[in-house]
Design brief:
With 763 residues, the chain is α+β, with helices and mostly antiparallel strands. The chain folds into three domains: 414 residues, Neuraminidase (6 Propeller); 192 residues, Alpha Horseshoe (Leucine-rich Repeat Variant), CATH 1.25.10; 136 residues, Orthogonal Bundle (Cytochrome Bc1 Complex, Chain D, domain 2). 29% of the residues lie in helices and 22% in strands. A hairpin with a 6-residue loop joins strand 16 and strand 17. Helix 19 packs across helix 20. The longest helix is centred in the N-terminal third of the chain and has 18 residues. It is globular, with a radius of gyration of 26 Å.
C-alpha cells in the first residue's frame, strides 16, 4: 500500500495547487462560452463567475474559495458575521469512495477581517471529523452532526472545551446521501432536520428529543411563520401548511394532510450546458435532445428567501439548488388560506446557471446583509458510491472528474450595484427587541435566538410591550416566541393574541399553547378554542384538532368533544379530518363507531380517511417479527436499513414522493428473477403495484440499482432479497447466491435500468 499512499499524497499536493486561486470578489462579466464535452477543466475561482448566467438585475460575488475553504456543505453565521463552515473533505475521493471513513472533515471559521466583502481569514474550530454534515450554533456552543451521532461542543475562544453526546442514533441508518441533516433553529425554538423525524431542544444542560414528521432529504428552511420547506432529489419544493410541532403522534396514520405537501410540483430544469455526467444520463427522458438535464435529479437545500435586499417580488420565493444541473432555481409561492402553492418563476431559464460542470451548489442560506449565500462543493463527483452506475463511472473517467479534491467556493448573490453591509448582532436588550421588527428575516431570527441564548431577563418587559402592539405582526410573532424561549409567556397574553384580526398572529398563538398549557390554564384555553370554533374560524380548525392532544391530559372530555364537533362541522375537509385522526392512536375504531350517528356518510373525508388508517393498522398487526428476521438475515437487515429503508420505509409500505411499497408487492413476492433484476440494475417508472400505478411525482421516477456496488457481494444481495421477501406480510422463498449469479450472467454488460414492460416481457 505504501507506493499507492505516496502517489495519492503527490496527487493531493497537485490538486491543492490546482485549486489555489483565491482572489477578490468577482461579478459576472460576460456570457458563458461553448462547452467542451471531452474535458472538464478546473476553472480558477476568480474566473468561475464568468461561466454563469444570472437573472437580469443580479450579480454573483465570490467571497471565499480554496485554499481558505474546501468542500463546503453547510454553514452558519455567528453574531459577528463570521461563517462557521462544515468541510466534508472525505466525500467520494473516487468512484469507490476510497478513504471516505477517514477523519478529514472540519468545522472552520471564516472571517472578513479587512471588511472588504471578501473573507480572508481561516481558523479551524474542530477537526478530525468523519463526513460531518451540519451544524447549529446555540448558547455559546455548537451542535455538530457527525454520523452516527449528534454532538454538542461547548466553546471557549472558538475552541471546544467540552463535548456532550446529544443523540447516539442521530444518523444510524442510510448512507451519506440519505442521512439526517439541516439542524434548522426554527421560530418555535426547536431544531429541525431533513431526512429525519426528530426535533431537538436545549433545556438547561439537557437536550429534549421529540418525534415529529419525517421530512425531506438534504436541506430544510422555514418561512416567516416557522412553517418548514424541504424536498427530495427529484422534487422541486415540498413543505408544510401548518406549524411543525403538530400531528405526528398517531403512528398508525401514515400521512397527515398539510404535511409533506408538494408545494411546487413542476420539476423541469433548464441548464445552460449539456449534462451527460448524471447517473442516469443514458436513460430516455433524463436528458433532453441537447443532452441537458430535463428534470431535477439532485434537488437540494430549498430556501425561502426572507431578506430585504431583493425587493417585494422576491418575498416568499423558494430557491432550490441543483448541483447535477449546475444551477439554482427560483420559485414563487402564494398562499390561499393555509394552503401554500407555487410555480417556477421562469420557463426556459434559471435564476443562476453555469457552464462549469464542477459548479455544485449544495446549500443555500439567507444572510445578515439580505444576500443569498451559495455553498459550492466544486467537485467532479457528487453521486455516492452506493448508486454509481457504470455509465457515470465512465463519464467521470472520460473527463477526469475525480480530481481535484481540495476545491470549494462560497458566493453571495445581490442586486446589481447594490451596497450591502454585514450586520453584527448586539447584546443590548433594547436593540435586540427592536431588531425583531427588521424586514430581514435572518436578523429577526438571530435577535430572538440571542435574547434566548443570553437568558436576557431585562428584555422581558420590553417584549411584553411589543406583543400588545398591532401593525407589526412579524415583531409580535418573534416577541411571542422569545418570551416562550425565556419561559416568561403568560396565559393572558396568549389569550389576547388568539383574538387578533391577523391570521398569522392567531396561528402562532395556537402553536404556542402546548408550551404554556397547565392544569390551571387549561379551562381558559378550552373556552378560547371553543370561541374560535363557534366563530367559524376555518383557518384555526385544523389547529384545534391538533391541540386536542395537548388538552387531553387536563380535560379528556373537552378534548374528545372538540374532535366530534370538528368532524361534524367540517366532515369533508381533509385537513381537519387528519388533524382529528392524529389524536386517535389505537382508538380509531371506537371513534368511528361513535361518529357514525352524527356523520353517517361513508364518502365524506372524515370517514374515508379514518377507515384508511384502520385498515393500515390491521395490516400491520399481521406483520412478521422484525427482530427474528434480523437475526435470521443479519446482513440483509443491515443493508435494508442503510440502503432501502430511507425510501421504502421501515414498515415496507413506501414513502410519499420517494418509493412504492415493498410489503405485499407482487414484484417482491412473485418471480424472484424480476426482483433480482430490479435490485441489480434499477427500475424506471411507472410501476403497477397491486393495481395502483405509481409514477412521478407520487414517487421518484427511478430506483437506482446496487449491482455495481463493489461493497456488496452476491451473497449480501441474496440475503437482502431474502429479508425483504419474508418481511412484514411477505412470505416468499429465499434467494440464493446462485440466483444472483444467474441474472448477472443473463444481463452481462447491461447498464440501463429495467421498465415494468420489459420485466413483464422477460418470461
Amino acid at each position: 500500500m505504501r507506493p499507492y499512499i505516496y502517489a495519492f499524497l503527490i496527487l493531493g499536493v497537485f490538486t491543492l495547487y490546482q485549486c489555489q486561486s483565491y482572489k477578490k470578489a468577482t461579478t459576472v462579466v460576460s456570457k458563458p462560452g461553448p462547452v467542451d464535452l471531452t474535458s472538464s477543466p478546473v476553472v480558477p475561482a476568480d474566473q468561475s463567475i464568468s461561466k454563469m448566467e444570472v437573472e437580469e438585475g443580479f450579480e454573483v460575488q465570490l467571497i471565499a474559495s480554496e485554499p481558505l475553504v474546501t468542500t463546503p456543505v453547510a454553514m452558519s453565521f455567528d453574531k459577528k458575521g463570521r461563517m462557521w463552515v462544515v468541510e466534508m473533505n472525505g466525500y467520494m475521493p473516487d468512484t469507490l469512495g476510497t478513504g471516505e471513513d477517514k477523519p478529514t472533515g472540519n468545522i472552520v471559521i471564516l472571517e472578513d477581517k479587512n471588511k472588504d466583502g471578501v473573507f480572508d481569514d481561516r481558523k479551524v474550530a474542530i477537526d478530525g471529523l468523519v463526513l460531518p454534515r451540519s451544524i447549529c450554533l446555540i448558547e455559546g456552543g455548537i451542535l455538530v452532526a457527525e454520523p452516527p451521532s449528534l454532538w454538542y461542543y461547548e466553546l471557549k475562544d472558538d475552541k471546544p472545551v467540552k463535548k456532550t453526546l446529544v443523540d447516539p442514533k442521530y444518523a444510524t441508518e442510510g448512507n451519506v446521501e440519505h442521512q439526517p441533516n439541516g439542524l434548522l433553529r426554527n421560530l418555535d425554538n426547536w431544531i429541525y432536520n431533513a431526512k429525519s423525524s426528530k426535533r431537538y431542544r436545549k433545556q438547561g444542560d439537557s437536550w429534549l428529543i421529540d418525534d415529529t414528521h419525517f421530512r425531506g432529504q438534504w436541506g430544510i428552511s422555514q418561512d416567516n411563520y416557522g412553517r418548514l420547506y424541504y424536498n427530495d432529489n427529484s422534487s422541486n419544493v415540498q413543505g408544510d401548511y401548518f406549524s411543525p410541532g403538530f400531528g405526528a403522534a398517531n403512528k398508525n396514520q401514515r400521512g397527515v394532510a398539510g404535511y409533506y405537501e408538494r408545494t411546487v410540483p413542476n420539476n423541469r430544469t433548464y441548464p445552460i450546458r449539456p449534462n451527460p455526467g448524471v447517473n442516469r444520463g443514458y436513460m430516455k427522458g433524463t436528458l433532453d435532445d441537447s443532452l441537458r438535464l430535463a428534470n431535477f435529479t439532485a434537488a437540494c437545500s430549498p430556501l425561502i428567501y426572507r431578506g430585504d435586499l431583493f425587493g417585494k417580488d422576491y418575498d416568499f420565493n423558494a430557491f432550490v439548488a441543483e448541483p447535477s444541473g449546475n444551477l439554482i432555481k427560483r420559485n414563487i409561492i402564494k398562499e390561499n388560506g393555509y394552503v401554500a402553492k407555487g410555480e417556477q418563476a421562469y420557463k426556459g431559464r434559471e435564476f443562476v446557471a453555469s457552464t462549469d460542470e464542477r459548479f455544485r451548489p449544495v446549500s443555500l442560506y439567507n444572510g445578515p446583509d439580505g444576500a443569498l449565500y451559495v455553498l459550492d462543493m466544486y467537485r467532479g463527483i457528487i453521486q455516492h458510491k452506493t448508486y454509481v452506475t457504470p455509465y457515470l463511472a465512465n463519464q467521470i473517467k472520460m473527463r477526469n472528474l475525480t480530481l481535484p479534491l481540495n476545491c470549494g467556493r462560497i458566493y453571495k448573490i445581490v442586486p446589481k450595484g447594490k451596497k450591502t453591509a454585514m450586520a453584527s448582532i448586539p447584546d443590548d436588550a433594547r436593540q435586540l427587541v427592536a431588531m425583531l421588527s427588521s424586514p430581514n428575516g435572518y436578523l429577526r431570527d438571530k435577535a430572538q435566538q440571542t435574547l434566548i441564548d443570553n437568558k436576557n431577563k431585562v428584555a422581558i418587559p420590553l417584549l411584553k410591550q411589543v406583543i400588545k402592539q398591532t401593525g407589526k405582526p412579524l415583531q409580535v410573532i418573534h416577541a411571542l416566541w422569545t418570551l416562550e424561549g425565556l419561559h416568561a409567556l403568560e396565559t393572558n397574553e396568549v389569550l389576547a393574541l388568539l383574538k387578533s384580526q391577523e391570521w398569522p398572529v392567531r396561528m402562532q398563538a395556537l402553536t404556542v399553547i402546548p408550551s404554556v398549557i397547565s392544569l390551571s390554564s387549561a379551562p381558559l384555553y378550552v373556552a378560547a378554542l371553543q370561541q374560535l370554533l363557534d366563530n367559524n374560524d376555518e383557518l384555526a380548525a385544523p389547529y384545534i384538532g391538533f391541540l386536542a392532544a395537548d388538552l387531553k391530559p387536563f380535560n379528556e372530555k373537552a378534548a374528545d368533544g372538540f374532535l366530534v364537533d370538528l368532524a361534524k362541522k367540517y366532515p369533508d375537509n381533509a385537513y381537519v379530518a387528519d388533524a382529528v385522526i392524529s389524536n386517535l392512536a389505537y382508538r380509531e375504531e371506537t371513534f368511528k363507531k361513535s361518529l357514525a350517528a352524527v356523520v353517517p356518510d361513508s364518502d365524506l373525508k372524515i370517514n374515508k380517511q379514518l377507515q384508511k388508517v384502520i385498515t393500515a393498522y390491521k395490516n400491520t398487526q399481521k406483520n412478521r417479527n422484525p427482530e427474528l428476521l434480523a437475526r435470521q438475515f443479519p446482513k440483509g437487515s443491515a443493508i435494508f436499513r442503510s440502503t432501502c429503508q430511507t425510501c421504502h420505509g421501515a414498515d415496507g409500505n413506501g414513502t410519499p414522493s420517494l418509493a412504492p411499497p415493498l410489503n405485499k408487492s407482487q414484484w417482491v413476492t412473485g418471480d424472484k428473477n424480476k426482483l433480482i433484476s430490479i435490485v441489480l440494475f434499477g427500475l424506471t417508472g411507472p410501476i403497477n403495484v397491486n393495481g395502483h400505478v405509481y409514477e412521478a411525482p407520487e414517487v421518484a421516477g427511478d430506483m437506482p440499482g446496487i449491482g455495481h456496488n463493489d461493497e456488496l457481494n452476491d451473497e449480501d444481495i441474496a440475503q437482502l432479497l431474502s429479508f425483504i421477501r419474508q418481511s412484514w406480510q411477505n412470505d416468499a422463498a429465499k434467494v440464493d447466491k446462485k440466483d444472483i449469479l444467474n441474472i448477472r450472467s443473463k444481463y452481462k454488460g447491461r447498464q440501463k435500468t429495467f421498465t415494468m414492460e420489459e420485466l413483464d416481457s422477460n418470461k
